[in-house]
Amino acid sequence: MEPTIHDRRNQQNGTTNHRERRKGPDVWLRSIQWIGMISWGLMLPLLFLIDRAKPEFETFFDKMFDIQVRSTWDQDVFRWAFYLMVGLLVLSAGGLAINKSRKRRREDYYRINLVIIFLLSAAGILYYLMNFIG
């Protein structure tokens, strides 16, 4: 059977004859969007905790007035940052799992923000485990 003119036109445009059944963002797509927003919202307190936990920088005035500054990481504060990183890792992994189950069509895509959060959280967890445990 020879293709019709409509079939050839669809092949040239890169479209198929399937009917679009998605009416808009469903519950899963909205949940992926919310997970992304919540993840970035939790990154701000995480960055604040890491900033509070890192060793203090000794300035000229600290040396001049002989002010003692902390030269080591504050492990109690960094432990809270670690817990937050674990939560972000779980949250972003859940979002990526939902995203993977939703990616069935060519025009569907992975949310890069979830990938970035996942990788940053995993790197922070590894840093904590290598430097503060054992």
Please provide a brief summary of the model.
The chain has 134 residues and is mainly α. It contains five helices and no strands. It has one domain (24-132).
What structural keywords apply?
134 residues, mainly alpha, 5 helices
Write the layout of secondary structure elements.
Blueprint: H1 5-13, H2 27-53, H3 60-64, H4 75-102, H5 112-132
**Mean pLDDT, as a whole number?**
85
Q: How many structural domains does the protein architecture include?
A: 1
Structural class: mainly alpha
User: Low-confidence parts, pLDDT < 50 over ≥5 residues?
Assistant: none
What is the N-to-C order of secondary-structure elements (H for helix, E for strand)?
Answer: HHHHH
Rg (C-alpha, Å): 24 Å
Global outline: elongated
Strand content: under 5%
- Annotation, overall tally of beta strands: 0
Percent range for helical residues? 55-70%
Number of helices: 5
Largest pleated sheet = none
Q: Termini, distance in Å?
A: 71 Å
Give an account of the 3D structure.
Residues 1-10 have a biased composition (Basic and acidic residues). Residues 1-22 are annotated as: Disordered. The protein is mainly α. The protein has one domain (24-132). The chain has 5 helices and no strands. Helix 2 (27-53) runs antiparallel to helix 4 and helix 4 (75-102) runs antiparallel to helix 5 (112-132). The model has no long low-confidence stretch (mean pLDDT 85).
